[in-house]
Amino acid sequence: MPSKVSRVSHSVDPSFLALPLHAAADAALQAARDAGATHADLRVERIRNQDVSLRDARLQSLSDDVTVGLAVRVVHDGTWGFASSPDVTVDEAVRLAGEAVAMARTARPLNSQPVELAEEPVYPNETWVSDYEIDPFSVDPAEKVALFEEWSRRLLSHDEVDHVDVHLQQAMEGKFYADTAGTTTTQQRVRLYPQVEGTRVDPGGGFETMRTIAPPVGRGWEYLTSGYDWAAELEQMPEHLVEKAKASSVEPGRYDLVIDPSNLWLTIHESIGHATELDRALGYEAAYAGTSFATIDQLGSLRYGTDLMHVTGDRHTPHGLSTVGWDDEGVAAQQWDLIKDGTLVGYQLDRRMARQNAGVLGVSRSNGCAYADGAHRVPVQRMPNVSLQPDPKGPSLEDLIGGVEKGIYVVGDKSWSIDMQRYNFQFTGQRFYEIRGGRLVGQLRDVAYQATTTEFWGSMEVVGGPQTYVLGGAFNCGKAQPSQTAAVSHGCPAALFRGVNILNTVREAGR
Predict the structure, then answer these.
(1) Is the torsion defined by CA of 441, 445, 446, 451 positive or negative?
(2) Which of 73-87, 203-217, 342-356 has the weakest average pLDDT?
(3) CA distances from 122 to 125, 182, 326 (A)
(4) Which terminal residue of the chain has fewer beta carbons within 10 Å of its beta carbon, N or C?
(5) Which residues neighbour 168 within 8 Å (Cβ) at sequence distance 6 or greater?
(6) What is the model's pTM?
(7) Largest Cα–Cα distance of the chain, in whole Å?
(8) Rounded distance between C-alpha atoms, residue 173 and residue 189, angstroms
(9) Cβ distance 368 to 334 under 8 Å?
């Protein structure tokens, strides 16, 4: 099978390429072979993070750090072994190969299931760089601070805005991978997440906040200057904040909900993204972040939602936070169905789970969902971009709202809670608008929507068209022990849900 065509929009950071990538790989993989390993892979990672924070137009913190490391993973006598180091040298690579084999030998008596990996085509000497225009690390930090000072002063000039916080997270991830099958890949990803939050303090001491709904993205600095309408959102924020502070408290009960993509992405993440991770469905993660109600015996039969529900996993959505050329096991990026016509039809896989469960899954190849958040961590099955597909002929947001007699329009994410099997949940948001007779009549407050996963997705009556589709996401998806963090995107249209239970958060708290 031919190798994947490389895509390079920018050159890879020269400081990463200056490391002895190929020499370290050749030496480590040969050492692992000589020690009897049936599989070995090497990763070299260089991750640069820069965070900027301002409070009331004054710089609070600016951090810039780089983490570099080398990892070797082996399969020896059917058992995993792993070792890592911050030293990226040929000698250290050889030492780590020996240490990984020694770890596998030590662990062998405890291993009841020999490790076998699904086959994957070989990709020799490939390069992939994510899609962005301006490297954010090439922009002078003073320019970033000046922009955020201007934004902050613009908001603080409004009488009803008492405080403004601005945060920007940026990352550049360089990754080199090589294995004993002959795959060698070099990748570079850039991502950033800007947030602006305004606070209004009541004379009595209470307060209310309003945050921008701009999502984190796999883009460069152009996102801050031309890739999003920041001016419009900042202009509207004081009005939104005042209206929210003066809004009536919601009366609990059943309501029809029109949920904006800026909120729905998080419900997808928690109730579908995590629930369709095969390791959870097999019973892993029970001690930390929970398993999944969507167990593997229900594949092909579990009714997740209505027939309108089509959810895909993918690793190549443009500007997606989980978009890559290859995963951390050398598996090429793919797209596949997780839920089709409302039925569970797939899971997220790594190479071992794909091989072990091929008979049940009906597939024999990993879909490229292995990832480690640094060279010091072992790759585990991590979430791809998980997205609800729009209806090609679906309605606009205005038409969705127009079809509701009594309901609520939900905008922006905020707090959330879900049980350890990804089944019972409740979500809040940034803004909630009352709908009467197909029109928005003002904001409500103290709103949370509550349901079980299948009840909620089973109430989805209308899916918006492509014009309502937005790619949301998060920088901070956590999983595994020791804990690892990954960035992931979730695309979705606006959608209409009938008869969803609404809680009043103040009354639920006993206040």
Answers:
(1) positive
(2) 203-217
(3) 10, 6, 11
(4) C
(5) 51, 52, 53, 144, 148, 192, 193, 194, 195, 224
(6) 0.96
(7) 74
(8) 5
(9) yes
